Amino acid sequence: MSFPWRLYLAALVVGVFAGLIGGAFHFLLDQAESSRDLLRGLLSAAPVPGWLLLMLLGALLLVAAMWLVRRFAPETAGSGVQEVEAILAGERTLRWQRVLPIKLIAGTFAVGSGLVLGREGPTIHMGAALGQFASERLVPRPGANRALIAAGAAAGLATAFNAPLAAIVFVTEELREHVEYRFATIQSVILACCAAVIVSGWMLDQGPDLPMPNLDMAPLHSLPLFLLLGVLIGALGMLFNRLLLGSVAAYRALGTQGAYAAAALTGLTLGALIWFAPATVGGGETLVENLLHGQPALFFLLALLAVRLLTTVGSYGLGLPGGIFAPMLALGTLCGAAFAALVSMMAPALALEPEVFAVAAMGALFAATVRAPLTGIILVIELTGAQALALPIILTCLSATFTAEGLGGRPVYSSLLGLQHKPAPRAPIRRIAAAAMILLAFIAIERVDVALEGTGMEPTAVLAQVSSSTTTSRSTPKTSTPTVTASAKTPTPTETAPASFQPPSQPAQAQAPASTATSTQPSDQSADGMDTETRPASEAAPQPNLAQARPWTVEGTDAETDLHIAITTPDTGASASAITQSARFSIQLISFRDADNLARFAQDEGLIGQALKIEPDGQPSRWHAVLLGAYADRAAAEAALRDLSASLKRLSPTIRSLTTTERLVPIEAAASP
Questions:
Q1: How many CB atoms are closer than 10 A to CB 670?
Q2: What pTM was computed for the model?
Q3: DSSP state letters, 514-581
Q4: pLDDT tens digits, residue range 192-220?
Q5: Is residue 610 within 8 Å of residue 628, measured between CB atoms?
Q6: How far apart are CA 460 and CA 298, in angstroms?
Q7: Any residues with CB less than 8 A from the CB of 158 and at least 6 apart, and which?
């Protein structure tokens, strides 16, 4: 047998172009997500209601996406995975000339608008289209067609999640019935995945998409909990599949005119959700990232789980390009976080880290729904880099798949493929209206919980409760604003107050009694021009509002670690030092994929000199958070979170726990072009 060099070369070309197109699609969706957040902030000051403009924009985008799909390439509707299965089975023809542009443009409109859909389905379909193109132009041989289509599909998944190994395993698990397994075929799949990840990594940086802090292995006596979690998620996976199939069938029964009306109404609803309940929309990566760093209340998690379950099935049933991988990962994370909150209430002595349950549940729901446990295990490990949690992940995925199979569930993509042969349901409008009413009820519950401040994100783990004390530093220049110093313990009359390292916009009495707190001015002259003196905090100069972008300085020395901490604004001419070991918590306002958006957001919100970011430590990061304040204990962070302005609370801020290696630095103003 001759060496199939043409097949390998074609697979390499497919991987390169899958990485380019998938990376571009990923970049466009990241920009769309950032633009949604920025637009929401800008429209808050618009002369007309911002939510109304978002509703109109959402309707316009979804109707445009629907027109593109129905007019040019109806096969681009939905995820694309089941379409690839049908193509490999010889049931359909892949028209790559139409699939590539429509899947890219309509997918950007649909997923970028905020629908609860993922990017992986479109990238898998576009990768398969590239495989079809290569088989026609580079290797026009009968045996090469299926191999290159499978290689392209795997390269698309590898690009979407930066998970080459999971993509290779996905082909062997999900497409096993339609791919002829030969050595050359597997080699082609591996080549394409490697090339795609290299190219997309060059475009989007390397590293896990959802990196986790270092987590300890789960103790052996806790492993039965993961089996129980798998049982619950297996039942959830079966419910998810049934709701998804019902949604697809109901929307298909509406006809052409009804589909456009449904797209417009969904767009209007989507715009309102982006404004009032942003956590309920989007693919879910930002939500997963927040959940992995913070632990909300149990009631909020359950309400949000119900809302996102309905928005996911509703978004997919609409028939626009978008996948369900990312929404499933978000649902699994919510379920795991809720289970962790329940375990902490029932058995607090176990002291298990909530992230362990969240990560295990993430892979388990994928395994139960797609019925691909090995892919789910490897995908989650590659996404989070949590190799130490392999055993809990495996047990949870195994238990979930056993449960789903025992309850009579079927793999979701096979079910979607066979749905076209079933009759349309009766009264689809009633079904959709009933689902919409249930969704509104759950959203109302979630919003009431937010209004009652029951959703405050608590840190997932107290990394190190710091009992620190700071002494007043008198090295601040005359032109700077007053120095703020703090202590995490109750100060004596000779000590300085407030109780955490924070900008002066936060109330000083959040942690220390006003009667004992003092505020110190620079050594030669106070802020009001009088001689320097130490006076009670109640008589101190008024603190600036969060909305003001005034410069500030925080200085102090930790009494236990002898660590000097100083932050000086750029206009003082001094270099800004990082707040390091004594900072254990901060308030995370928002996260961006593009680091350049941090400065733009801080400028728009008037937070230059107050907002913080995590200084990179050499490890690449896919997410860049905007933080506010640095606190030595959780109570101060919670108090500051409650005192945020209404405009910032609309962003659904959370309390983020900081590791000892994370360094906070102020966000500086963007350089003028």
A1: 14
A2: 0.70
A3: TTT-EE---SS--TTSSPP--EEGGGSPPPPPTTS----EEEEE-TTT--EEEE--GGGTPPPPPB-T
A4: 999 999 998 888 776 677 776 666 778 88
A5: yes
A6: 13
A7: 18, 164, 166, 167, 168, 193, 196, 197, 200
